[in-house]
Structures are given as C-alpha cells and as structure tokens.
Give the backbone structure.
Amino acid sequence: MNQASSRATSGEPHHVIIIGGGAGGLELAAKLGRKHGPKHVTLVDSRPIHIWKPSLHEAAAGTLDIYQEGLSYLMLANLCGFTFTLGEVQAVDRERRCITVAEVQDPQGDVVLPQRELQYDTLVMALGSVSNFFNTPGAAEHAVTLDTTESAEAFRLTMLKAMVQVDNAKVQNPSAELNVVIVGGGATGVELAVELHEAGGMVAAYGLQNFRADRDLIITLVEGAPRILSALPEKISNAAHTRLTELGIRVETDCRVAEVTADHVRTADGREFAAGLCMWAAGIQGLPLMATLDMPVNRIGQLIVNGQLESPDPNILALGDCSAVPTGEEGRTVPARAQAAHQEASYLVRKLTARIRKTPEPTEPYVYRDHGSLVSLGQDTGVGSLMGKLAGRGLFVSGTLARLMYMSLHLMHHHAVLGIWRTGTLALARLLLRRTHPRVKLH
Ligand SMILES: Cc1cc2nc3c(=O)[nH]c(=O)nc-3n(C[C@H](O)[C@H](O)[C@H](O)COP(=O)(O)OP(=O)(O)OC[C@H]3O[C@@H](n4cnc5c(N)ncnc54)[C@H](O)[C@@H]3O)c2cc1C
C-alpha cells in the first residue's frame, strides 16, 4: 500500500493543497479555509506577500506601492483558517500524491526553510502564467515583463533611474529623451502605457529640473493586430486609441516585433524604434511545472482540464491562467483573466467541500460568464463594456464611471478574501494615506 492509499483508508481528513495564491488560488483558499479549517486546506506560494496581479502595471509605474499594497499570506491564513506554506513548488509526484516545496533562502543565501514534502488528497494547480516571448530573438534578454511583483518593481526602479539620468543629461544635451516601447496592445499594454505617461509627469513635477514628461518621455505601443484591444469590441478599441493619441502615446498597429536589442525594437516590416526600456506584454504561457505533470497541455502549456476543472488525474484540478478550460464552443477555452479565475475558484468551493465531507460531488460543469471588460486609462478615466442581465449584450461605459468600476474589481477581490469590514477599512486607510504620501513612489 502506498502513502496515498494508506491516507485514504486511515480516516485522515481530506487534505486539499492549492499551489498558487493569486487571483483564483487565494480566493479558493480563503473560502475553503473559512468553511473547513487549516487541517483540510493548505495554500503554497513562492512569495510571502499577495498582490493582485491586475494591479502590477500600477506597481511598475509607481502609482501603487507594493510594500503598502501587499497582504501577508500568513496573516490571511490566520484570518481565513487555512494553512500557508512558503516556497516554490518544484515537483509533483502523482503516484505518491505529494509535492516538493523548495527550500527558502534569505537574500544572503542562508536557508530559512528546508526543502519539504507535502501530502495531498486533492491538488489544485493555480500557478498563473508567465509571458510568452514567442521565440522572438532578444526578447527574453532585453525586455521586462509584468509576470511578478519583483519584475514590476525592478521596472519601476529602472525607469525612475532612467528619468533622473535623462534629467541630468539634458544639461549637456537638450535633446536627450527616454524611449519606452511596450510590446502588446492588449489591456495590460494599454493600461501600462497610460499609467507610465501619468507617472512620468508626476515624477518630473516632484523634482526633476530639466525633464518634461510630455516632451522627453516617448512611449510607443506596438501591436501585431490591426487594432489595439483586439479581443474587445471595436468601440472600446477606438475610444482607447483616441485617448492614447491625445496623451501623445504613439500607437503602432499591424506591427509584428521581430527582434529586441539592448536599445531598439525591430519589426518584421523593417521598422526600428529606439527603446531605452522595453516592456513585453504580448501573450502568456503556462509555467514549466505544468509540463512535468505528464498530462496533456495545450500549445501554450496550459493544463487541459474538463468542464469540471479536472485533469485526467482526478486528484488534480486546475483553475485560472495555468489551465485550458473548455467553454463548450468547439476548440475555444476560457480566457486567461482574473474574472475567470475568480469564477472558477467559486465553482471549486462546492466541489472540494463535497470531497472534504465525502458527499457526492456536483455534476454540472463550470460555465464561464463574461461580465464585460474594463480598461483603466489612467487614474481618473477608463473605458469598457458591461455584460449581464441589465446591460444586455454589451453596455459601453467610459470616463470616471468606468474607472470607478475598474477600481471596484480590485475591491471585490479583497472582499472575497478579507470580508466586507476589513475591505472597507483597508480602502479608507489607503484613501487617507494619499494625503501624506506622494502620488507616485519616488524612491
Ligand atoms: C498588468 C496586468 C493587468 C491585468 N488586468 C486584468 C484585468 O483588468 N482584468 C482581468 O480579468 N484580468 C487582468 N489580468 C490578468 C489576470 O491578472 C490573470 O488572469 C489572473 O491573475 C490569473 O489568476 P491566477 O490565479 O490564475 O494566477 P495569478 O494571479 O498569476 O497567481 C499565481 C500565483 O501562483 C504563484 N506561483 C507560481 N508558481 C509557483 C510555484 N511553482 N510554487 C508556488 N507558487 C507559485 C505566484 O506567486 C502567484 O501568487 C491582468 C494581468 C496583468 C499582468
């Protein structure tokens, strides 16, 4: 009898391990933890602090401070009743139903936590995704991504340094400028372009003598499709395009990137853009761990699951960006979005509750409901479409209303994790802090 079957027959509590405490995994851990407690639910994440991934463009621009924004997983575990284990999951042994969590070192290289093995009855893969460079030469070496909090913070510091350098260089060379190229005109690229434009203006206003963002910060958004936000309705694309152009952001569509170098981005049709900084926001792929499970993955490395979010191994489920979930339409899968990860987490609460209570599992499949898309176009405005009973097939929203709705999505995530009172307190505290902190992080 192997360890796995001996657990099942020994009457031990059914143990769910969730790998990845992101938009979907953390909500699942919090909801299950509140229902069943820490003996049944363990969350593993490679980082000690949670930041909602859709806010990483604000972290990269410095309009959101990761040290203020981050929620400690240990605090959340205590609050919501799950167990938290810190460390990167390196391997899954399906035969023995256990995962290997890597040792954790401090910045000096001292071991803080040893390598560990954890035993599961059900494993939920909620690892998210990383950028897909589509084998573009030079992209992995020279472009930055918004995959992690660390990469967003590294970009912020590099950009801040570059602005200060240009500010100094302008004493000798008045035509010095900072060129930023963003590859990918989806929601991430569009939101980042506007956020960087606004943050550049704020940094300059806080103390750069010679640097003027509207003149010296050249932001170019490069998109391979004929229009930006090509996955969204044309009306939204057009509104966003107009706004970007008004702000002085260059938008290049129908433009495929062929190479990224240390200071340029070259396109397949022979164009070349100066790029002191290049941000890659042009597609996602599954993490390498998904390919080690010895189960089918799709062409971008997402684990293929059925409508019940089950992999071919019934003890392994998956949600969010790391999974390819069928929509029911031939060949189509649920888009990699926070709203899908949120819905899938809610769906799995019932399924996993049944497993924990050893009652029959619900049989109806998960159905993705598109509630629309909202794109932030800076601190005061946004654009998007809403779907649903009231909005019908798509209600176009723009301006401050769209921006407020966009902000409410972040609060809804906090609400799912922290509950209403703590979310309210947090929102109020952040509002008050704005009176004593600069609007953009300056150090
Ligand atoms: C800048 C930006 C803006 C976006 N805006 C929107 C938006 O407006 N609306 C929208 O719907 N979607 C948006 N998205 C997409 C959205 O962020 C993702 O679809 C969503 O976060 C996916 O959730 P997830 O739970 O699958 O993974 P994630 O939220 O990415 O979480 C994955 C977690 O897994 C952990 N992890 C990874 N590997 C390991 C490992 N080996 N061991 C342990 N832990 C691991 C990570 O640390 C992370 O905490 C945006 C994305 C970006 C980058």
Notes: The CA atoms of residues 310 and 340 lie 16 Å apart. Residues 149-172 form the longest helix (24 residues).
